Amino acid sequence: MPDSLPDAEALIARLADAIRPRLTPDTVLVGIHSGGVWVAERLHALLGISAPMGKLNISFYRDDFSRIGLHPQVKPSHLPFAVEGRCVIVVDDVFYTGRTVRAAMNELFDYGRPACIRLAVLVDRGGHELPIRPDFAGLNLDVAPEHNVDLSREQDGSLKLTLT
Amino acid sequence: MNPQLTPDGRLKHLLTLDGLPRAILIQILDTAESFMDVGEREVKKVPLLRGKSIFNLFFEPSTRTRTTFEIAAKRLSADVVNLNIATSSQSKGETILDTVDNLAAMHADMFVVRHAQSGAAHFIARHVAPHISVVNAGDGRHAHPTQGLLDVFTIRRYKGAFHNLRVAIVGDLLHSRVARSQIHALTTLGVPEVRVIAPKTLLPAGVEHMGIKVYHDMEAGLRDCDVVIMLRLQNERMKGARLPSAQEYFKFYGLTPDKLALAKPDAIVMHPGPMNRGVEIDSEVADGPQSVILPQVTYGIAVRMAVMALLAGASA
Amino acid sequence: MKIHIQNGHVVDPKNLIDRPADVYIVAGKIVAVGHAPADFHANRTIDATGLIVCPGLVDLSVRLREPGFEYKATLESEMLAAASGGVTSLACPPDTDPPLDEPGLVEMLKFRARNLPGPRVYPIGALTQKLEGRALTEMAELTEAGCVAFTHADAPITDTQVLLRALEYAATFGYSVWLRPQDVYLARGGVAHDGAVASRLGLPGIPALAETVALATILQLARETGARVHIARLSTRDGIAMVRAAKAQGLGISCDVATTHLHLCENDLVGFDAQMHLAPPVRSVRDRDAIREALRDGSIDAICSDHTPVDEDEKQVPFGESAPGASGVELLLPLTLKWARSMGVSLNQAIDLISWKPAQILGIPVGHLSVGASADLCAFDEHAEWQVTSRTLKSQGKNTPFLNHLMQGRVRYTVIDGHIDFEAPLLRRPNDV
Q1: How close does chain B come to A152, measured CA to CA in Å?
Q2: pLDDT, averaged across chain B
Q3: Percent of chain B topping pLDDT 90
Q4: Among residues of chain A, what percentage have pLDDT more than 70?
Q5: B119 torsion bin: left (phi>0), alpha (psi -120 to 50), beta (else)
Q6: B44 labelled catalytic
Q7: B5 touches chain C (CB under 8 A)
Q8: Domain limits at C40?
């Protein structure tokens, strides 16, 4: 199956352009491990946000724990700012069913009450199962369930999107 | 076939650290690490065990341990029920099995068990329905696995790695389930030298088969140690003709600043609690800069959260 | 009743017989081994093709649990169990409730047993009143009522002066005293052998010292008083060495060991299985191997089952709270055979250890197939395999560390006093009852 997807770095630039007009001094970025963190790191640099960015490990908030158990460990969550009253942009690499974002929101609210939450994703692959939609998307697709869209990081640190 | 593991090698019960693969111990420690920040947040909970019922079955009374398990369970959003079953060897009350069966009928998902008899947790684990997990919170002299785990978690936090450490455990090994669990954890994780310092009357038979080095002289035993773990001395030891007095014990086996100075300058001092000040440990040491006794308690919550989360996930 | 047991292979250790031979029984007595007596017409013929025919087994310790402990087992069930195991004579310890310390109790037990099918019952009387280790029992009266020896069973006698007096009194009349060597203080609180395994499992230990210290006392007192002493249930290597040395010095003592100790050791205490809670405890590998060897070289005189049926509830508790003991009268034969096979010991010697030798220790006229002797015998298939399950066990006590194990050696017929008290149906599978 040919991976005929656009260059990830170009998509990130496009995403940054969409977000820039909506930034406020209070905005913070929070990336969802692992792909969302990589994208958030790029965005953080491109947008020149001074506040440090946060990272969320949503393993403890997944809705499939009873079915699959505890996932092998990813890096723990780290929010180096108070969530209370902030405008948080949650960043993820691929938006699919929406459950990951729901989990991320549940977790965020356990840290404090944000003023608002916006969702920025690199790719919206279609197929949402919950009433959650990205506010910013680098690319909109309609991918069949039997295919996967993944973001990976190469040895040299560059990001790559693949469709399988 | 380890009764603690599922056929595919996941943790199903935590009964003892003896025989648990190193990978599982590391998995628990790493999971505990990721639970550390939950206590720092505004809402100190994650929803992992929401809807699950955890029953604390304490046949031997204990406020400290029970409270820690309760906090850990609640931080996982589980429902917690505490049962303190008074034990009297004379009283012909409900048998353990009847108690366990009744509770299982109330949709228990997990039992946390403390009992005066060695092997009690194994016994209960053998009899519960397949979906129920058992956590041993201390059985007789045999094991206190969560304590052993939080102790090595503490050591890892302060010392980083295990492969170059000298650890000394001082006190009543003969009666100590904590020490047995610590020894299993330390040897499994590859600590090259585990020392036990105690008089002969407080050492079990066949101690040379436990993979440790025995010292009767505390000063020799503490020399160049990176970690010093003090065990609690119970009053019964004097009554059982094992020791003449707390005073003489403290003179030879109590941790004072002078004796601590024989260990490495950056050695840490640990104690599973509760402490007998002036019997096994001097207040100056217990409250001193090398003591990590209070952090141990905090780590205990994260470690117990990790254990319960992994067990609940295994029945998925 | 005239019985003809044909085509079997007779093993009679006392008379040194080990060959194919027929056995002829008339009116409860053995009238011939080998050739039929003149004018013999059998009422019943038993085809013992492929079977070993030997003297009925004599078990030195079988707890029948009556009087007093009927919830654990009854006379009926245990005697049937014994008969199904090929046992035709058994000695029962006095630790009943009340203990067998009065002639009336002994008479009642003997009366009950006599009227039931099953082995001859030889009570061992209590050495002290109520087994409290203080006052002597009326040993002469008890002997008259049917006791063949005296013992304190597992109850401790801490007062060495009382023990000395008891032995002196017994020696006056030539009575035999059976003693279990265990120092009550050194064993205090212990539930398993004090060694590496118990230390690892956190189980309070009973050191080997508890046996050897008590044994030293017993041997000294035996020497001093000249009493006939039998050491019950040895468990240690050092204890065996002491008995061996004492025998070599001419002390007339005998000793026995339980079937469990031929095969099990501390390493079998896996997972705190309460079925492994035994008294005395099974000990180290070296102790077990010393027992196995000492049976072969004759230092240990007999094997018994130490049959101790226990109510299921008493084992369904954590190890340290469980009642010690194993049910095992039905396993006396197969466990003895298993030991013999693995040690390269002859069938003759194996059977000797559970028939003629124990009979001599008890001082009773059984354990051999001499012409004129009571017809107590058993015919067994030494190759038949069967599985130990709560169904195949006839005892009410299902408590055995050998649960679900496969045994080799099954009794087909047990004849007691010329009556066929047990007869097994032809069994096809190991789980058949």
Answers
A1: 24
A2: 92
A3: 79
A4: 96
A5: left
A6: no
A7: no
A8: 2-53+372-423
List pLDDT tens digits, range B106-119. 889 999 999 999 99
Token pair recorded at residue C324: 């010690």
Q: Are residues C32 and C143 in the same domain?
A: no
The set of chains that have 3 or more CB pairs under 8 A with A is B
Q: What is the model's pLDDT at position B67?
A: 95
Domain-located, residue B51: yes
The DSSP bridge partners found for residue B82 are B56
Domain annotation covers residue B223: yes
Task: Say yes or no: C270 contacts chain B, CB-CB below 8 A.
Answer: no
Task: Give the structural domain span for B66.
Answer: 22-143+297-314
Q: Which of B52, B122, B144, B264 is catalytic?
A: B144
- B144: annotated active-site residue: yes
| Domain match, C14 and C91 both | no
Give me the residues of chain C with pLDDT under 70, please: 426-429, 432-433
- Determine the residue of chain B that is closest to A66 in CA distance: B316
Do C288 and C378 fall within a single domain? no
Radius of gyration of chain A (CA): 15
Chain A partners within 8 Å of B48 (Cβ): 60, 65, 70
Query: Confidence band (pLDDT; 50, 70, 90) for B91?
Result: very low
Residues C382, C338: one domain? Answer: no
Q: Do B176 and B53 share a structural domain?
A: no
pLDDT in the model for residue A6: 85
C195–B96: do the CB atoms touch at under 8 Å?
no
B89 pLDDT more than 50? no
Taking CB atoms and an 8 Å limit, are A76 and B37 in contact across chains? yes
Show which of residues 112-131 on chain A sit within 8 Å of chain B, judged by CB atoms: 112
Q: What is the pLDDT of residue C378?
A: 97
**B155 and B261 part of one domain:** yes
**Residue C306 a catalytic site member:** yes
A68 vs B contacts (CB less than 8 Å): 313, 316
Catalytic residue chosen out of the listed positions B12, B114, B177, B259:
B114
Confidence band, pLDDT 50/70/90 cuts, at residue B86: low
The residues pairing with C149 across neighbouring beta strands, listed in sequence order, are: C124
* B155 and B45 housed in the same domain: no
- Judge whether C285 lies within some domain: yes
Residue C367, in any domain of the structure: no
B197 domain-assigned: yes
Q: Does B139 touch chain C (CB under 8 A)?
A: yes
Tokens representing residue C219 in the block? 């041997």
Sign, Cα dihedral of A45, A50, A55, A61: negative
Catalytic residue among C12, C183, C194, C306: C306
Give the pair of three-digit tokens for residue C420: 């066929």
Judgement on whether residues C258 and C383 belong to the same structural domain of the protein:
no
Task: Provide the 8-state DSSP code for B164.
Answer: T
- Listed by number, the residues of chain C in 286-315 with a beta carbon closer than 8 Å to a beta carbon of chain B are 313
Distance CA B286, CA B283 (A): 5
Chain A nearest CA to B106, separation (Å): 19
**Interatomic CA distance for residues C164 and B285, integer angstroms:** 57
Average pLDDT over residues B28-45: 89
Domains of chain A: 8-163 (3.40.50.2020)
Torsion angle of C-alpha atoms C215, C221, C225, C227, degrees rounded to 10: -20
Q: Residue C412 corresponds to which tokens in the numbers above?
A: 């087909």
Burial of residue A4, with CB atoms counted within 10 A of its CB: 0-12 exposed, 13-18 middle, 19 or more buried: exposed
Residues B60-69: pLDDT tens digits? 888 899 999 9
Residue A54: helix, strand or coil by DSSP?
Answer: strand
- pLDDT given for residue B90 in this prediction: 35
* pLDDT at site B99: 87
| pLDDT for res C432 | 66
Domain count, chain B: 2
Q: Are residues B157 and B268 in the same domain?
A: yes
Mutate to test the interface with C, among B59, B87, B141, B237 (most CBs of C within 10 A): B141
Nearest-CB residue to B42 (from A60, A77, A112): A112
Contact (Cβ atoms closer than 8 angstroms) between residue B106 and residue B53 = yes
Q: Is residue C107 part of a domain?
A: yes
| Number of domains chain C contains | 2
